[in-house]
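Example with several molecule types.
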Amino acid sequence: MTLDADTILSVRDLRTWFKGRHSIAKAVDGVTFDLKRGKTLAVVGESGSGKSVTSLSIMGLLARPGAIESGQILFRDRQERVHDLARFSQKQFRALRGREIAMIFQEPMTSLNPLYTVGDQIGEMIALHEPISPSEARKRALEMLRHVEIPDAAGRLDDYPHQMSGGMRQRVMIAMALACSPSLLIADEPTTALDVTIQAQILDLLRRLQDQFGMSILFITHNLGVVAEIAHDVVVMYAGRVVEQAPVMELFARQTHPYTRGLLACTPDAERDLGSEGERQALYSIPGSVPPITDLPPGCAFEPRCGYAVPACRNALPPLVKAGENSISRCIRSHEI
Amino acid sequence: MLRSALNRLIGMAIVMFLVVTIVFVIVRVTPGDPAAVMLGPDATAEDIASLRERLGLNAPIPVQFLTYFGGILRGDFGQSIFLNIPVTHALWLRAEPTFFLTVFALAIAAAVALPVGVLSAYWRGSAFDQAATMLAMFAASIPSFWLGLIFMQIFAVQLGWFDTSGYGGPGASFAERMHHLVLPAVTLGLISSALITRFTRAAMLDVLNDDYVRTARSKGMSEWRVVVRHAFKNALIPILTVIGLTAALLISGAIVTETVFGLPGVGSLIVSAVLRRDYPVIQGALLVVAGLYVLVNFVIDMLYLLVDPRVRY
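Resulting structure tokens for the full complex:
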């Protein structure tokens, strides 16, 4: 279990499978990536690509019948000790969750408990991991609300979640997640349910908090626009596997996997999509849909939807190969794209 | 909070006024002369006439209603024909066993149902869950009088731990009287626990999948804390509703159990009043039972307010 000094999280050949009576859903099948200290790694993919299951595997929050089949999740804690989370018991996870690794979720409307005030819920996080009096916890909760820039924080401390807007609630979630200064924050589509203007505010806030708190962020999203805003490195997932990995600048400059290319083409772009006369082009979408992960073809999983497909794609799973200066791609024609 | 309570109290008063009116009308629209029905086929015309006079049945209907309504406001429910004492007094004499029977049965039902329901949901599909589900089905389908008789046979006749029936002699101490309530309370409690168990399980299954439960787990707390503080409290609203309904059912369900165990409660008073056609007692008991229903509902509504900050009336 060796880990580079500046790597906080290293997922190695992770397989998380859901075994049913008659079939195995390989939701995550051999995923490998590293997250550097203080950096943001975006994991991008459509629903069903395995990005959320990856994050739940790291947190030990998989629901039955999901279980880690093999692989390693190496994590460096604040004392610089390296743990393999793939072998952690629930008891070991409890000491880690919230304190070392915290998570924010997609639905700020339902992710907070409706029966407790936001001050209570932030304070609970601190009280769980530090010996602290209730009044001290309350003071720290207020401090956290100020950190996430909630106006009139003192007045909102005793508000219930239903008295707040979606954006405010996501700020509360972030305040709660960062309350114990974790070294890793997992953000699972934190802006997807929010209005565009609020999205930008939350991303901006996360960036500033990262400078302030120094945590690394694992950012799960399907939105490449969001990736451009926040990520340092990008992992693109398809059908439970990594298909492309690159630093963010390199990825947007040149995609080395047809799937990434398709994803980027799906993002609406006013300049490109609106003609000079204001006439609208049809929006691009990748033909077909993600294959069922219980029944993947032996070759490239993207081959049936791929415009670059050749017969060789069907024979065997293409390996991840170096495709650019710092990028890798799981495409046998990566150099032609 | 105070405002919500006040709104609910006003609602309660309106419901009770309607109940009083309905009870009054039912007695008046029942075919036949109440006085003649009460006195039976052998009564003479003079007897009937004098009873009609005593009951105030000769006055015009609106006057009768006002007299009746005014009496109720003063706590006067009339005079029992058979017992020849005020109805309120007759009810009061019988209130103790019914009150404690209902309270004990409800406590037993909740004490059994809540943990079993929560664990069933938490371990759904397990052997425990399946056994609990089967037992709840079984308990729900057993008639209370039959279970009462079985318990009586085992614990009173064979083991001799309890008396088979009654409420102790006239001079029985409070402890002795409560001892007589153990078997009937367990009987009623176990049967009522079935419904509460099923509702608790369903409500818990709902909330255990909610996002905030996942959030709670991600904070690194014990499963006990996740289940009790974050999940169970959210499941309480439907559970409180069904406990309220159970309490209301117990008030009327006590009638059969009291008869089986020979308890001198309100239930057996109602049964004998019906057999004797003691109309004032029936009316009074009807009002008291309806009043208790309304009161239980009020208490449940107030508990909603305490549990859920989103509730406003």
